[in-house]
Specification:
20% helix; 193 residues; nine-stranded mixed beta sheet; alpha+beta
Length: 193
């Protein structure tokens, strides 16, 4: 059993009144939450770079080899994981594939940030469920707790479908619906008595 902060393995949903444009309507999967800070990935914003192009840029395959990639690798979407270290790649994945550098996030979700997993995906032997992100979202110690207290974020239990499916643009609304929330009924400020 993975034992970490209470936000580990949870979704953060930006409230409709989010003023930081980088996070407006974002769904973030939290990978690490502790007294030192919080790290996660925006999972509903796409990069303009496609996965085969990324593999070519990294020298894993040639442009000619990109058409020979397994369908799963050719169709893998690269997400804009957040504004921190935007050139660094991370793969969230099911625990059916692990290398020495894989880090368990929950009992069945892992994160790997090494080239090993990119080679495995391009060879068709990678994990069953995969999400690729460039960059991440990070918060200093206590920062995310203050933002949650200020009603900037909702916390939601993720499902594998919502985490890994390809409906990127509809993900925010679908997570809200899963929570039983109508985004049209939200007001940007919380009331105080």
């Amino acid at each position: 059993m993975v034992n970490n902060g209470f936000l580990n393995g949870q979704f953060l949903l930006a409230m409709p009144g989010m003023t930081d444009e980088r996070f407006a309507r974002s769904v973030i999967y939290v990978c690490a939450h502790s007294e030192q800070g919080t790290m996660g990935f925006v999972i509903n914003q796409l990069q303009s770079l496609e996965f085969p192009d990324l593999l070519v840029r990294l020298g894993i395959i040639t442009q000619a080899q990109s058409i020979l990639l397994p369908e799963k690798a050719r169709s893998l979407m690269v997400r804009r994981g957040g504004p921190v270290e935007t050139g660094r790649g991370f793969v969230l994945h099911s625990d059916d594939f692990m290398v020495g550098a894989s880090i368990p996030i929950t009992d069945d979700i892992c994160m790997t940030a090494t080239m090993d997993i990119l080679h495995a995906i391009s060879d068709g032997i990678g994990p069953d469920k995969t999400l690729m992100a460039l960059g991440y979202a990070g918060w200093d110690a206590g920062q995310i707790e203050r933002e949650i207290a200020n009603n900037d974020w909702l916390i939601c239990e993720p499902t594998d479908d919502l985490l890994f499916d390809g409906d990127i643009l509809g993900k925010y609304d679908r997570v809200m619906v899963q929570m039983g929330v109508d985004p049209g009924r939200f007001v940007p400020q919380a009331g105080h008595a």
